UniProtKB/TrEMBL annotation:
A Pfam family annotated for this UniProt entry: LysR_substrate
Protein name in the entry: LysR family transcriptional regulator
Organism: Streptomyces hygroscopicus
Assigned protein family: Belongs to the LysR transcriptional regulatory family.
Domain HTH lysR-type span(s) in chain numbering: 1-58
Transcription among keywords: yes
Matching InterPro entries: LysR_HTH_N, LysR_subst-bd, WH-like_DNA-bd_sf, WH_DNA-bd_sf
Amino acid sequence: MDLRQLRCLVAIVDEGTFTDAAIALGVSQAAVSRTLASLERALRVRLLRRTSRHVAPTGTGLRVVAHARRVLAEVDGLIREATSSHAHLRIGYAWSALGRHTPAFQRRWAQAHPETDLHLVRVNSATAGLAEGACDLAVVRRPLDERRFDSAIVGLERRLCAVAADDPLARRRSIRLAELSGRTLLVDRRTGTTTAELWPPGSRPATEETHDVEDWLTVISAGRCVGMTAEATANQYPRPGIAYRPVRDAEPIAVRLAWWRDDPHPATQAAVELLTTLYRNG
């Protein structure tokens, strides 16, 4: 059984006669008869009742036609998905997208590339949805597996410490890593940019783990833990109960745009260029 046979069956039922089905399919009437016969042999059932003037599905034929319509609709959807790579661009991110550049990127993309719809997709995984097939490109802030993915650094972001608004550190303009060594650091090991290895051995803070930015914000605002994150998080998630302060002696975070090495989206280079420009211009 193949799709050609299913399309033939549906055409016969929709058009009402073999002659009209042949016209709709652009083949000969004899080809329609042969195709239907081969389908009935494959299924070992009679699908249509035929007279000199009329064609009607059998009881089994009605059920088969219903299934055939669903199968053909799924196949048509698959074809549209596979061939519409120029029409849609999905960019995944785990926590903070592009920070303050997120609105500008969306607006400028729409102006420069109206033929390609841009969709930002939040997926809290190590590849921001890339490995899961949820996006075509991913914004990540740590290196990915180079055997599977390519990436380009589009910008750098400062590391910020997040503390409760009533924490003594909130009154400071900036802080140092050593001032956090006695605190408990809340981290997301799957997607985050912060680990205890940022501190020298012997002065590393204790850690607790979270898997969601909203939980991270809630725990920090209660004063139980502190956090360290990319500057984009402060722009994407300002909170009255949280203060973000620069960490003076922490290296900046590289922001990368990543894609499948063997299947780059056609708009990859355009996205890299636009994001690089936004980060370069501040």
